[in-house]
Amino acid sequence: MQRNNPIFDNTEIAFALKNDSEMERAYFLFKMISIEPLVRIGAAATNFALKAHLPIEGLIRSTVFDHFCGGVNEEDCLPVINKMYEKGVSSVLDFSVEGKESEKEFDHARDVTLKIIEFCKEIKAIPIAVFKPSGFGRLYLYKKVSKGGTLTDKEQEEWHQVVKRYDMVCKKAKASNVAILIDAEESWMQDAVDALVTQMMEKYNTEKPIVFNTLQMYRHDRLAFLNNEHKKAKEAGYFVGYKLVRGAYMEKENERAQEKGYESPICKNKAAADENFNSGLKYMIDNLEDMSVFAGTHNEESSYLLMDLMEEKGLENNDPRVWFGQLYGMSDHISFNLANKGYNVAKYVPFGPVKDVMPYLIRRAEENTSVAGQTGRELALLTKEKNRRKTL
After folding, report:
1. Which of 355, 289, 353 is nearest to 322 (CA)?
2. Whole-angstrom Cα distance, residue 380 to residue 385?
3. 382 CA to centre of own chain
4. d(CA 253, CA 259)
């Protein structure tokens, strides 16, 4: 159906917001990312330079940061957000500061998220908020709760504060009528996140999905999890919301499983992960009366599949229960061509101080290097658009 009329090859729509110098920068960055040893060396050198307080923030800001991030704070992101919204692409402001350890830093992440929800209320271009569980509590604590370990009195108080942060944010989201996406973590801490998010769904998804969990569909158990959570919600009378992604920690997951001698939670191969993701989409579209889906994908086939499923069900392109999502700085050919056809599309727009956002940026570079064909596709489309512009 949709594949007979491919829309993702239209580079004029895809790159309408990029001027020639931004096109050149994007081409240069993806060319660099395509060379795996260079990414490894670059990541190590950048980390060293930042720790040694060498003056490289300006260079990072004008290259990789400005391509993949919206700015250093919420206000700084507004020009990017407004520009994209003119082409029908919404934004999800993502405070991409990772690996913090103190209660003060976790409270700060909560306060930033509450501020973003306020932004969402006032700015139509930002319809959805997001936070990362590891921004609200220590990884060790999530891991211990996931394993069912006995918490000390101090840890119990600490976990109570984590629950309070989730509750404050979800309560504010419900009161503001703003969807809140909660990102996924590694499998060994995800059980604690899942239980907490389900608790928040039961409390706040009473009229419609407001709180969304994230399912990393490269995990072979996530389809069964989705099914079980749906059953629980139907019995208890609340709605569920899920962001479906393929997943971000494959190598780390497989290495840990091998090292500790348990079965890896990751699908055997990419084809199985793709099938799992697509089955998740089908299940959710079949059960839209109880749920909403945010399809976080850079995969063209999965995007076409979701379009097909919507068409088969007779859904409007802009049905409020279905969103497509991509990361800022990547897959513009998917985002802007979908928006041009009237679908609900949102770009994840990361922001934060340059130094604090570096772990996110390094992960993006490593993911682009490891996903077969993705960087090559970006380069091919950029080349096609550069050539098209030369003929004008």
Report:
1. 289
2. 9
3. 23
4. 10
| Distance, CA of 121 to CA of 223 (rounded, Å) | 33
8 Å CB contact between 332 and 80: no
- Residue in 363, 301, 259, 238 with CA at minimum distance from that of residue 1: 301
Rounded CA-CA distance 163/200 in Å is 9
88 DSSP assignment: T
* Burial (CB count within 10 angstroms: exposed 0-12, middle 13-18, buried 19+), residue 163: middle
DSSP 335-370: HHHHHHTT--EEEEEEES-HHHHHHHHHHHHHHHHH
Tokens of 48: 């060293």
CA distance 60 to 314: 46
Domains and CATH numbers, the chain: 71-353 (3.20.20.220)
Query: Which are the contacts of 305, defined by CB distance < 8 A and separation ≥ 6?
Result: 278, 281
Per-residue pLDDT of the chain (392 residues; tens, 9 = 90+): 556 678 999 999 999 999 999 999 999 988 888 887 777 777 777 777 777 777 778 888 888 899 999 999 999 999 999 999 999 999 999 998 766 789 999 999 999 999 999 999 999 999 999 999 999 999 999 999 999 999 999 999 999 999 999 999 999 999 999 999 999 999 999 999 999 999 999 999 999 999 999 999 999 999 999 999 999 999 999 999 999 999 878 888 999 999 999 999 999 999 999 999 999 999 999 999 999 999 999 999 999 999 999 999 999 999 999 999 999 999 999 999 999 999 999 999 999 998 888 878 877 777 666 565 788 899 999 999 999 999 98
Token output for 204: 């706040």
β pairing state of 240-245 and 211-216: parallel
Q: What residue type is 351 in one-letter code?
A: F
CB 359 within 8 A of CB 100: no
User: Helices in the chain by DSSP H: which ranges?
Assistant: 11-14, 20-33, 36-51, 57-60, 66-68, 74-86, 103-122, 139-146, 153-176, 187-204, 222-236, 250-260, 270-286, 300-312, 332-340, 354-370, 374-390
For position 253, what pLDDT does the model report? Answer: 92
Whole-number Å distance between alpha carbons of 41 and 254:
23
Closest CA relative to residue 338, chosen from 307, 316, 373: 307
